[in-house]
Specification:
Blueprint (H helix, E strand, L loop, with lengths): L23 H8 L23 E5 L2 H12 L4 H15 L9 E8 L2 E7 L36 H12 L4 H14 L1 E2 L2 H14 L5 H5 L7 E2 L2 H13 L3 H4 L1 H10 L7 H6 L3 E3 L2 E5 L2 E5 L6 H14 L1 H4 L7 H21 L10 H4 L2 H9 L25 E8 L5 E9 L55 E5 L2 E7 L6 H13 L5 H6 L12 E4 L7 H9 L3 E4 L7 E6 L2 E6 L6 E5 L1
Parallel strand pairs: 13-14
Antiparallel strand pairs: 1-9, 1-17, 2-3, 2-10, 3-6, 4-5, 7-8, 8-11, 9-10, 11-12, 12-15, 15-16
Helix pairs in contact: 2-3, 3-4, 3-5, 5-8, 12-14, 12-16, 12-17
The structure holds 6-diazenyl-5-OXO-L-norleucine.
6-diazenyl-5-OXO-L-norleucine binds next to strand 9 and strand 10.
InterPro entries: GGT_bact, GGT_CS, GGT_lsub, GGT_peptidase, GGT_ssub_C, Ntn_hydrolases_N
Protein name: Glutathione hydrolase proenzyme
Family: Belongs to the gamma-glutamyltransferase family.
Length: 584
């Protein structure tokens, strides 16, 4: 039996099993207050043998890289580091890092893949038409800003479950760096002030955002005393404190009279361990996010269709007009399937197997033609009626020297979520309700549409595109990758993976290469990004081929670690302020 070494949660939050009861030694450690020496290892990892030369992270800011350093130095593993990074980003990267949102974690631990779904859920009082007015029209912004946009947050239970199951350190230890940043403050950089200023405009007069964040200015040491208290409660009482303790009281009070999240919603919330979606591709095993994300399926569909179309792609220059034209047709098909078949697997039986089936994808790939006229033929979902059935997110990748890995993407959805701060709790709440189909046929903030499978219903999880992914080679970690970007998430990951493996680029080059995006709607539109805009001859040729070009603010912030033999090579997207760091 394993020997957990975490702090015991205090009643009434003691939802852990007997298998998690502390041994006498661990009780002693827990009782000795702020004991932060490296905890003894769990029995299941009792004699870990280092298989890599180092541990490594690719993270979206420098503070979370420092946190990872402390956790590895204390003997923590990839899950300990991931949980500590997630809590740190909730403080130092508050437009996306969060405790008031949700996400997904793909884990490779002791040779096996796992997936943790800590996605937000619709409150029990949510209804299908809650964002429509009397005339059946969408109320602009209602699913994006303010209390009614908020889904039941999942991050804290996700981190709690991941760390309880796989962590080596004490729970308190992994929260300590975040508590320190919240208490002592951190230096605000200009990029964060800019994100704050942009978001603050959309919240002005509608939420209490500025009461907490008006001080977020470049050069200032930003302290968050109420958030520090919240994190301290969670550290000492365990993750369920957020759902059943004083933090829950504060959330419910914040919602009262304005939003739908109740105490019952919080008590009922549990993160769910699911089978990751997996597929063989190019000698690698892809492990990625299953529903309620479309991300893993979309990524696998794209990679397999491109492989099926090898003869058509052979010799094409990366990001040339014929290359973009073929990828755009692949993307049409992926997004057509996404809108028709994908939603919360606890509400609908999503046909995952059929959607990533080799024969099905070969047949879909066969529809892609070099000489197709953009937009001329409607692209339908491929399985027939098989079923009724600018925004802000962040990703980090972690490997430890024992060969374990975590790929984690989590989100508030929009920058700073709904802009609603929990008074007394000091943290912002998500606006994940906008990932539902708020009105069938109407696009959400990332322009994707959908149908009944993703309408609002009590307890349902909104469809996501997040795709924290791990590639395995011979049952060992070969790549850990993910990104924010809403519907651009899996198309961005796809592009970086093909840059790495089809074009043999080094990680930094694979990240720096131009990226574009296309989805089913708006038809014939190729989105370019400010980092490397599509201009000049390429722009003219695409337009001459029938495409419309559109700029977008954002095409991801990919954080990856490639493992080459025993050597982890982290790389952070030059579009962001991320950091790759190796710890020997
Ligand atoms: O779950 C999703 O797909 C979206 N809520 C993610 C939002 C996002 O990536 C925004 N990032 N910039």
């Amino acid at each position: 039996m394993s020997v957990p070494t975490h702090d015991a949660p205090r009643a009434p939050f003691a939802s852990f099993s007997f298998a998690r009861m502390l041994t006498a030694a661990a009780v002693f450690a827990a009782l000795s207050g702020s004991f932060v020496a490296p905890a003894p290892a769990l029995a299941k990892t009792a004699t870990p043998k280092a298989v890599l030369d180092a541990s490594a992270v690719a993270v979206p800011d420098r503070y979370s890289a420092d946190t990872a350093q402390q956790i590895f130095a204390a003997g923590g593993n990839a899950v300990d580091a991931a949980v500590a990074i997630a809590f740190t980003l909730a403080v130092t990267y508050p437009d996306a890092g969060n405790i008031g949102g949700g996400g997904f974690m793909t884990v490779f631990m002791d040779g096996k893949p796992y997936f943790l779904d800590y996605r937000e859920r619709a409150p029990q009082q949510a209804t299908r038409d809650m964002y429509l007015d009397d005339k059946g029209s969408l109320v602009p912004g209602m699913s994006l800003v303010g209390h009614r946009a908020v889904g039941v947050p999942g991050t804290v239970d996700g981190m709690w479950q991941a760390q309880q199951r796989f962590g080596k350190l004490k729970w308190k230890q992994v929260l300590a760096p975040a508590i320190r940043y919240a208490t002592e403050g951190f230096q605000v950089e200009p990029w964060l002030q800019k994100r704050h200023d942009d978001a603050a405009k959309s919240f002005a007069g509608k939420t209490n955002f500025d009461v907490y964040f008006s001080n977020l200015k470049a050069g200032v040491t930003f302290r968050q005393p109420e958030l520090a208290q919240t994190l301290t409660r969670i550290a000492s009482d365990g993750g369920r404190e957020f759902y059943e303790g004083r933090t829950a009281d504060l959330i419910v009070r914040q919602m009262y009279g304005h939003g739908l999240v109740t105490r019952q919603d919080l008590i009922q919330y549990k993160a769910v361990w699911r089978q990751p979606v997996t597929a063989e591709w190019n000698g690698y095993r892809i492990v990625s996010a299953p529903p309620p994300s479309s991300g893993g399926i979309g990524l696998i569909q794209m990679l397999k269709m491109k492989a099926d179309l090898k003869p058509a792609f052979d010799g094409l220059e990366l990001n040339s007009v014929p290359y973009i034209h073929l990828i755009a047709q692949i993307e049409d098909r992926v997004f057509a399937d996404r809108q028709q078949y994908m939603g919360d697997p606890d509400s609908y039986k999503v046909p995952v197997g059929k959607l990533i089936d080799d024969a099905y994808l070969a047949q879909r790939a066969d529809e892609v033609k070099p000489d197709a006229v953009p937009g001329a033929t409607p692209v339908n979902p491929g399985l027939g009626d098989a079923m009724p059935e600018k925004a802000q997110t962040t990703h980090f990748s972690v490997v430890d020297k024992w060969g374990n890995a975590v790929s984690n993407t989590y989100t508030l959805n929009g920058p700073f979520g709904a802009g609603v701060v929990v008074d007394g709790g000091g943290f912002v709440l998500n606006d994940e309700m906008d990932d539902f189909v708020t009105k069938p046929g109407e696009p959400n903030q990332s322009g994707v549409t959908g149908n009944e499978v993703n309408t609002v219903a009590p307890g349902r999880r909104p469809l996501s595109s997040m795709a924290p992914t791990i590639l395995l080679k011979d049952d060992k970690v070969s790549l850990v990758i993910g990104t924010p970007g809403s519907s651009r998430i899996f198309t961005s990951i796809f592009q970086v993976i093909t840059n790495l493996y089809d074009f043999n680029m080094a990680p930094a080059d694979a990240l720096a290469a131009m990226r574009f995006h296309h989805q089913l709607l708006p038809q014939k539109t190729i989105y370019w990004e400010p980092y490397q805009p599509i201009t000049g001859e390429l722009a003219e040729q695409l337009q001459a081929s029938g495409y419309t070009l559109a700029g977008q603010q954002f095409n991801g912030d990919v954080q990856l670690i490639r493992v080459d033999g025993a050597n982890p090579e982290p790389a952070a997207d030059p579009r962001g302020v991320g950091v790759g760091r190796v710890f020997h």
